[in-house]
Amino acid sequence: MGTLMDRRARHAVGAAVRQRIPRNVHAQWNAPDDRADPVAILLDQGRSRIVELLPTRYARMRASAFAFYRGAAAVMAADLARLPHTDLQVQLCGDAHLANFGSFPSPEGRPLFDVNDFDETLPGPFEWDVKRLAASLVVCGGDAGLDHDACRALAVRAVRHYRRHIAKLARLSPFETWHSRIDLADAVAALDDAALRRRVKRRLRAALCATDAQYNLVADGPGGPRIRDHGTTEHIERFRPAMEEIFEAYRLAAAPPLSALFRHYRLADTAFKVVGVGSVGTFCALGLFVSGDGDELFLQAKEAQASVLEAGLGPSGFAHHGERVVVGQRLMQAEPDLFLGLAPAPVDGRCFYVRRLKDARMANVGAAIEAEALPFTASLCGRTLARAHARGGDAATLAGYMGDGDGFDVAIADFAMAYAAQSVTDWQEFCKALDNGRLGVA
Hints:
The protein has 442 residues and is of the alpha+beta class. It is built from 18 helices and 13 strands. The longest helix has 29 residues, at 407-435.
């Protein structure tokens, strides 16, 4: 192992990068004349998706400018790859928009707030995630009817809290940084609005005290418990063999401690699930496991395709994209899921990773905060992204680059405003392409 630099030296390395990439460079966004057609990018992405689900994907993206932004990570990735960028590498989320942050209970029952989607994760320049988050806040604020100044203030707030939290983490030991986390209860206690604070606290208490039965996903069948068909969850017989193969391969590959736990469960049922916006069209399965006493455990198997960032950053170092996702999540998330793992070999030519099904009740608490207090959510997401980047990068170097002033905050906010306007224009063109049949669906 080579000589390690102290934090002062690493801070100086970051500061020196400003000579090559000044912070104000990040404000730039003007669509180049040869910019890739966003609709063509989405058409190309659709070729690897389940074709029957493309109408659902496009309908969800059509709903609003923010819904389109959520589904168009590949479009922004292509744009970011053409801009000047630092060589300050972190483990990127790759799709760090507002809706990909959420709340969930820690093993000891404390509500945590963290990044919760890693399908596009890849090592890359730290500012790509920051730009994606800041622009998402502007687009979301616009959908909510906020004016220009209020939308810009959201972006500035998120980046300021990102920068300040990086600076705070840079003063900690690597061990302390690795184990830092964002406690949602503590964050909610800091809300200035007393009425909102009380409402969110009530929702938190209700979510943490609720039983798993409130998932409302299980029905009694003649052969025992089965997953209830409703909304986005459906039994599709032609997918059943593949789903059973995925969960069996995952179970057999589990580490010995998890294998010991699985001895108490059997796979009782599987069902196909349509998820999210950006992920619609990928293969996703639910697995209902039950114990001898009828205790239920829900796992979710998700297809992992190539990251949208690979077009600009080069291929992932992992042959199995599920492994790319699993490693990225373990690097970035404060309390990775105990059940996070792989189906080691592709099934029907697709790579899969497995995790515990997200608790929608906890996610809804995060959504309530987002809807009623966007400025608070902006700061929370900024701090959370900083904590995630500090695990897969170096906080002292990032702090050295961003500095103590607001130059980086202002530049990213300028970019966010310009790129949000671009995204709204792209959404409008996307809607026209749907209407004229270019995307192949009505």
